[in-house]
Amino acid sequence: MTEVHSQTREYTLPEGCPVCESDLPVRVTATGPNAVCTHCGWMGRPFITVTHNGLRVSYDDTARA
Ligand SMILES: [Zn+2]
Question: Is this prediction's pTM over 0.85?
Answer without folding.
Answer: no
